[in-house]
Design goal:
It is a single chain. By secondary structure, the protein is an alpha+beta fold. It folds into three domains: 2-16 and 431-454, no CATH class; 32-283, Rossmann fold; 309-414, no CATH class. The chain has helices spanning 2-16, 55-61, 82-90, 114-126, 145-151, 176-179, 261-266, 271-283, 436-458; strands at residues 32-37, 74-77, 95-100, 130-134, 153-156, 159-161, 166-170, 186-190, 199-206, 209-211, 214-217, 225-231, 237-243, 252-255, 319-320, 324-325, 374-375, 378-379. Strands 2-1-3-4-14-13-12-7-9-8 form a ten-stranded mixed beta sheet, with helices on both faces. Strands 5-11 form a two-stranded antiparallel sheet. A two-stranded antiparallel sheet has the order 6-10. Helix 1 runs antiparallel to helix 9. The longest helix has 23 residues, at 436-458. It is globular and about 50 Å long.
C-alpha cells in the first residue's frame, strides 16, 4: 500500500508542475491571429531552414509559444487570398493579421486582389485590429505600393550573410516589444535614425540573417511612428517599428529579420520569436508601450510612441494593472470617449461568462472580479475599471474623460517588471489543461489505495482457537 500511495503522490506532484514555456508573455485574452503570406527562396535554403508561411501558424499554436489563441492561428496563401480576405473582414476585435507576403495578393481564380486586401486592412485597423509585418512583408514588389505606404516602409536588395548576420539594436529601450523577455549581449554606438538620437544602444547578433540593405522609412520622419530596432550591419537602416495613422484604432508592428526558420520560429526561447510574440500581443492592444495591461490603441487613438494618448484609457479594453482581465473589452460608451464608434450595443465585446469575464472553471488573473464583468457602460467600477478621472462607480467607463489615467484603478499595483530570460524569473503560464488527466489518474490511484487499505482493516479475522 505504501508504494501505491507514494506513486499517487508522485504523479500528483508531477501533474502540478507547470510545463516549460519558452516564450514569456503577460496574461492576455485569447487572441484571434491569422497569417497571410507566401514563399520565396532567393538563398536556396532547405525546407528546414527557410521560414515558410505554413510554418508561422504552427509555431504560434505550439504549447511553448506563450500565446493564448482562440481559435488556433491559421495561414492563408497571398496568391489565393479569398478565404484570408473573408477572415480579415469578419474577424472580431481584437485580432491580428501577420502579414508575410512578398508578392501582391491575387484571387484564387486569378486576378489582382491587392486593392481589396488593402481596403480590408484599412477597415481592420480603423476598427481596432492589429497587424504584424514580418520579414518580406516589407519587400517591394509590383502592386504592393499602397500597402507599403500604409505600413510606412519599403525594402529592396537582398544580402544573405552566414558569418556576421546582422546586429539588432534596441532603439526603444523602454518599449514592451523590445524589452519583454528579450536579452541583449552587448552595447555599441549607433547613429541617429528615423527620429532616434545617436547614442549607445544594446544589441544582439542575429546569425545567419538575410539583410535588406535598402530599407527606407516613408516618410523619413513620421510623428506617428516609433522606431524599435535598427542595424548597422551592411549599412544603417531600420529593422522594426510601430506605425499608427490618424483615425486608426489599431497598430502596425514591423520586424524585418525572419528568413532563417531555426532563429525566427523554432527557437522559441530566442529573441526573434519572443519579439514576434511581443509584437502580436502589443498589436492586439493587450498591453501599451510601457507594458501596462489593457491600454488599447482601439480605445481612442495612439500617441507617436505607440502607447495610449489621453483619449485611450488603460482599463478600457481588457486587462488593468492589478485588476486582472476585464470582462468587457472595448466599449462604445466606456473608456473610449464619445467619439469612438460602437463595437457592441451593450458596451463592448461581450464576455462568455456574464458574471465575470473568465469562466468559473479558470482562476481569475491578478485579482479579476468574480462578479464585476461587463456593465452596460463598459467596465464597472467594482471590477477594477474606475480610476482617477475615470468611470463613475455606478456606470462603468461611459463618458470617460480624456485623462491619460482614465480607466486605471486608483489603488492598483503595477505589473511585474519584464525580465530577461537569464535572470531565472521569467513569467510562465499556468499548468496546461493537457495535464488534467494526470490529476485524475493520481486521484484514482490514491482512492484505490485508500479503499484497499480500508478493506484490509475491515476484513474479519478467523476466530482465535480456545486454548483452555
Amino acid at each position: 500500500m505504501a508504494s501505491v500511495t507514494s506513486l499517487a503522490f508522485a504523479l500528483a506532484a508531477f501533474a502540478v508542475v507547470p510545463s516549460a514555456v519558452a516564450a514569456t508573455l503577460p496574461p492576455h485574452r485569447p487572441l484571434d491571429v491569422f497569417v497571410i503570406g507566401d514563399e520565396v527562396n532567393p538563398n536556396n535554403l532547405s525546407d528546414g531552414d527557410l521560414t515558410q508561411p505554413e510554418d508561422i501558424p504552427i509555431a504560434l499554436n505550439a504549447s511553448d509559444s506563450g500565446l493564448e489563441l482562440a481559435p488556433e492561428a491559421a495561414g492563408f496563401d497571398s496568391q489565393c487570398v479569398d478565404e484570408g480576405l473573408t477572415r480579415l473582414e469578419s474577424s472580431a476585435v481584437p485580432s491580428v493579421l501577420v502579414y508575410f507576403a512578398h508578392r501582391a495578393a491575387r484571387h484564387c481564380a486569378g486576378g489582382d486582389a491587392q486593392a481589396e486586401l488593402v481596403s480590408a486592412l484599412e477597415a481592420h485597423l480603423l476598427r481596432g485590429g492589429g497587424m504584424v509585418v514580418l520579414h518580406h512583408g516589407l519587400y517591394v514588389a509590383a502592386g504592393k505600393e499602397a500597402i507599403l505606404e500604409l505600413i510606412g516602409a519599403e525594402s529592396n536588395s537582398i544580402a544573405w550573410n552566414t558569418t556576421q548576420g546582422q546586429r539588432v539594436y534596441n532603439l526603444a529601450p523602454e518599449h514592451f516589444v523590445t524589452t519583454y523577455g528579450v536579452s541583449y549581449a552587448a552595447s555599441a554606438a549607433f547613429p541617429a535614425l528615423g527620429g532616434v538620437a545617436a547614442g549607445t544602444y544594446e544589441y544582439f547578433d542575429n546569425i545567419p540573417d538575410e539583410r535588406y540593405p535598402l530599407t527606407t522609412l516613408t516618410p523619413a520622419t513620421d510623428p506617428e511612428r516609433t522606431l524599435l530596432f535598427g542595424s548597422d550591419s551592411g549599412g544603417t537602416r531600420a529593422l522594426g517599428f510601430v506605425t499608427v495613422r490618424s483615425g486608426w484604432r489599431g497598430r502596425v508592428v514591423a520586424y524585418q529579420p525572419g528568413e532563417y526558420q531555426p532563429n525566427a520560429l523554432d527557437d522559441r526561447d530566442g529573441n526573434n520569436f519572443q519579439i514576434l510574440a511581443n509584437a502580436i500581443v502589443f498589436a492586439a492592444g493587450e498591453v501599451d508601450a510601457d507594458g501596462q495591461g489593457g491600454a488599447s490603441a482601439g480605445s481612442g487613438g495612439t500617441s507617436s510612441t505607440a502607447g495610449s494618448n489621453g483619449g485611450s484609457s488603460a482599463g478600457s479594453a481588457g486587462i488593468v494593472p492589478g485588476a486582472g482581465r476585464s470582462s468587457g473589452g472595448t466599449s462604445a460608451t466606456g473608456g473610449a470617449g464619445s467619439e469612438a464608434p460602437p463595437s457592441d450595443s451593450s458596451g463592448g465585446v461581450a464576455s462568455p461568462n456574464p458574471t465575470g469575464g473568465r469562466s468559473s472553471s479558470e482562476p481569475p488573473l491578478s485579482g479579476a472580479s468574480a462578479t464585476g464583468g461587463q456593465s452596460t457602460g463598459g467596465r464597472s467600477a467594482a471590477s477594477g475599471g474606475a480610476g482617477p478621472s475615470g468611470a463613475a462607480s455606478s456606470g462603468g467607463a461611459g463618458g470617460a474623460t480624456s485623462s491619460p489615467n482614465a480607466g486605471r484603478p486608483a489603488t492598483a499595483s503595477p505589473p511585474p517588471e519584464p525580465r530577461s530570460k537569464d535572470d531565472g524569473c521569467a513569467l510562465t503560464r499556468a499548468p496546461s489543461r493537457a495535464l488534467a488527466p494526470w490529476f485524475a489518474l493520481a486521484a484514482a490511484i490514491a482512492g484505490y489505495a485508500q479503499r484497499r487499505g480500508s478493506r484490509r482493516r475491515s476484513r474479519k479475522l478467523p476466530p482465535t482457537p480456545n486454548r483452555d
